[in-house]
Amino acid sequence: MIPYYLELVGLHERAGSYPGSLSGGEKQRVAIARAFSSPSPILLMDEPFQSQDPATKNQLIDLIKKLHRQEKKNIIAVTHDISDAAKLADQAFVLGNRPVEVLLDTVVDADFEKKCSEVLSWQTSLIN
């Protein structure tokens, strides 16, 4: 099972490598493969695309979407990149600073990035 997921994230040739020999991006991809290989119906992902170049990030987003459709896992992902959320999510929450509050709870649609920008601009105007 593990070789299948390593193949999907493009690391099958590194299967026997020690963790210390992997780059930060490779470690991130191993974490994604490990998460999807788990029988758990829910995945928690904290900045899953950190340390990835743009091309690899887009490939991983496509891969996660494909695996989500195939395996019907629920995914809760934390990201600071609104465009990542727009590409990956069905529903998104924009959280404010301390104390943490939900500034926006929305379905991801064609207006998602605009809604997020408006909320973040509004929040910035309150701070200034």
TrEMBL record:
Keyword annotations of the record: ATP-binding, Nucleotide-binding, Transport
Organism: Teretinema zuelzerae
Keyword Nucleotide-binding among UniProt keywords: yes
Signal sequence residues: none
Any GO MF annotation of the entry: ATP binding
Keyword ATP-binding: yes
Domain ABC transporter: 11-49
Record-linked Pfam families: ABC_tran
Name of the protein: ATP-binding cassette domain-containing protein
